[in-house]
Write a structure and sequence with these properties.
By secondary structure, the chain is mostly helical. 78% of the residues lie in helices and 3% in strands. α4 runs antiparallel to α6 and α5 packs antiparallel against α6.
């Protein structure tokens, strides 16, 4: 039973790592999606987008390795906390990125109140020893 759980947790960690590496790369491939989500009171949105993408890639790769897993998971938690203003701003702009994507406003709330905390808990779980 313990072996199956360990395999599941390893799979989960690799999936999370891939998720963040992919999301980070996407910041560079599709900046027009991310930049409008950065609230106007945050300066240099292009730079913020690049740094966010780079940090996601680094943390994602950090999750792959036992020696860096704990620090990377902690970094993911911090990053998720730093992303809260973008989720709030997305709700404030009606859950729409002009000329790109409009979703029901409730989806912005789901991202902020459910998905975001689940990502934090998921990262916290991977800070714990196997």
């Amino acid at each position: 039973m313990a072996i199956k759980f360990t395999r599941f947790k390893s799979f989960s960690r690799y999936f999370m790592a891939g998720f963040f590496v992919f999301a980070g790369i996407n910041h560079f491939l599709n900046p027009d999606f991310y930049i409008p989500l950065i609230p106007p009171y945050i300066p240099w949105p292009e730079t913020v987008n690049w740094v966010s993408g780079l940090v996601e890639i680094i943390l994602g790769f950090g999750l792959f390795f036992e020696k860096t897993r704990r620090a990377a998971a902690g970094g993911v938690i911090l990053l998720m906390l730093l992303f809260i203003p973008t989720h709030i701003y997305f709700i404030q702009i009606g859950s729409c990125i002009p000329d790109l994507l409009c979703t029901p406003q409730w989806l912005g709330w789901v991202r902020l109140v459910i998905i975001h905390p689940l990502l934090v808990l998921w990262a916290w779980w991977h800070r714990l020893p196997d």
